[in-house]
Amino acid sequence: MAIAVVGSLGLDTIQTPAGRAVEVLGGSAAYFALAARHFIPVSLVAVVGSDFPAEARGALEHPDLDLSGIEVRDGKTFRWEGVYSKDMNTRETLRTELNVFEEFRPRLHDRLRSFTDVFLANIDPVLQREVLDQLKHPRLVLCDTMNYWIHGKRKELLEILKRVRILLINEEEARELTGESLMHKAARAILTLGPEIAVIKQGEHGAFLQSRDLYFTCPAVPIESVIDPTGAGDTFAGGFFGALARMERVTDRTLRAAVVYGCVMASFTVEDFGVLGLARVQRPEILRRADQVMEMTRFSLDNTARLLR
Amino acid sequence: MAIAVVGSLGLDTIQTPAGRAVEVLGGSAAYFALAARHFIPVSLVAVVGSDFPAEARGALEHPDLDLSGIEVRDGKTFRWEGVYSKDMNTRETLRTELNVFEEFRPRLHDRLRSFTDVFLANIDPVLQREVLDQLKHPRLVLCDTMNYWIHGKRKELLEILKRVRILLINEEEARELTGESLMHKAARAILTLGPEIAVIKQGEHGAFLQSRDLYFTCPAVPIESVIDPTGAGDTFAGGFFGALARMERVTDRTLRAAVVYGCVMASFTVEDFGVLGLARVQRPEILRRADQVMEMTRFSLDNTARLLR
To answer: Where in the numbering of this chain does the Carbohydrate kinase PfkB domain appear (chains A, B) (predicted)?
Structure first.
């Protein structure tokens, strides 16, 4: 039992009100894999340049992470630099160097083609389609995207959506994709585009999941000190998809628990720069925060019906 | 057993993408009372002009609403006119005519002075203090405010906060009052200002409650068609405070249920213009939506610990 992620690996330079990190490991595949590995082994499909530092690779070396699908190409690794606003709700990209990522054409080796559970991280929908075309028996495919593709490759994105089981996007993207400003209506509109499940990431407000029969909301775990929000969405994806794939069956019960684990894992990422917060997490802390979400949301209406006049 | 609200009554002219309503009953006291009356009798303390229409007064006539504290003064009733943005998340005030509300000095008649459970709606903190000074045995006092007072009468507001048990405000107000951008930190900062409980209204994201020992989040009930958000916050206050006062004891259990009823009642208000949606609500629908919130938030982590590697 294992899952695969096809996404980016890169070196991020991040400035937030809490400080600055220079050329640290980043990319959707890194955050996703480091979160999902707590639940299930993960194979990474990505590309790095010949300059990819041993330290960055070392952060991904773990018995539950298969790095054999990481292609090393002559040239420089993808780099991104951004600066966050004071409240960290917005960020400005100062620099994007695609480098070897510009020529990325994911080729899955034979064993990877047999994977049934795959996360298509936020990359060009044309590449997402090429990955899908290589899978022999796709069963549980989760897809992420962003405004850039919603505007620039809408047709290709809509084609992909017909072939994925779950779409994971944030509120702004859901609005732009569907034209609906009410979030639960946007989520239901997504279900008409192909996916049977839509998961909407809401940042500090948590996330919610919409399927035909289920509408489940989960708050974010409150964090004492938010240091760097980079990668929180991909970390959510890792916790959500790792837990869901590990539970094997897709039911209302497993979907609810998977969303909770997504929110829990994301909370570790924002506590430090890059993958540092996520990388040091231990099992007991994950369980403790999942219990915390339960405490934050549980209530009883026993005997309250009699309160009503 | 009964509660009192001291707030505004007025005639609102409201334009939203869904249409327009002209000079309909509005004001914090109206929304609060029409929500809270489902749980407990409510006495209103407010002022209207001699032009207050019989139809508006009629909307408040109910066996559980005591209107004897509504002062009728010579002159015109408070009027407000506003227009909402396309997504209804922001609104522009086109006109505010304070009229008789400008001279409002709440005077509680003797029976009202014995009330222990009082909602001080969003009015000048100087008036809120005058109300508090008239109460013989205040027990459960809930206070609302707005940016206008946070900036313009900060000192007077801070004095009031030392004397109220629960502060209810929205996210933007919480940020401006405390200077904290993380909401749960803003809520905890409020607890250092006097209140033992802070309730933060988050609009389409629901609400959360923070006390010394409890952090409880509740999502908004998803609404098919949002017609007019006016009064949703005061309706939340009515559902929350009505249920809490009715349960008599302030415990983690009663606070959780009260927040749920606050979110439930607010969902009826946004479904139609002014108080129309709220005024026609029946008991079974309230119970159905409270169950719906339970369905939206419940999850089980049974056996999920074994998922973790």
So the answer is: 19-275
* The pLDDT of residue B243: 97
Among B174, B172, B132, B175, smallest CA distance to B156 is for B132
Q: Is B55 on the interface with A (CB under 8 A)?
A: no
Measured between alpha carbons, how far is A185 from A174 in angstroms, rounded to an integer? 10
| Nearest chain B alpha carbon to A184 | B222
* Joined tokens for residue B165: 């048990």
**Element housing A66 (H / E):** strand A65-66
Q: Which residue of A has its CA nearest to B216?
A: A296
User: Which pTM does this prediction carry?
Assistant: 0.96
The string of DSSP codes covering A236-255 is HHHHHHHHHHHH-S--HHHH
Instruction: Give SS3 for B304.
Output: coil
Cβ–Cβ contact B54 with A under 8 A: no
Q: Which of B23, B48, B156, B155 is nearest to B102 (CA)?
A: B48
Q: Please identify every stretch of chain B with a pLDDT value under 70, giving residue numbers as ranges.
A: none
Specify whether the backbone of B173 is left (phi greater than 0), alpha (psi in -120 to 50) or beta.
alpha
End-to-end CA distance of chain A: 54
- Spatial separation of the C-alpha atoms in residues A221 and B89, rounded to whole Å: 25
ipTM computed for the complex: 0.94
Domain B3-298 is of which CATH architecture? Answer: 3-Layer(aba) Sandwich (3.40)
Helices assigned H by DSSP within B179-228: 183-191
Burial bucket for residue B147 (CB in 10 Å: 0-12, 13-18, 19+): middle
Please name the member of B39, B183, B260 whose beta carbon is closest to the beta carbon of A299. Answer: B260
CA B33 to CA B28: how far, in whole Å? 8
Homologous superfamily assigned to A3-297: Ribokinase (3.40.1190.20)
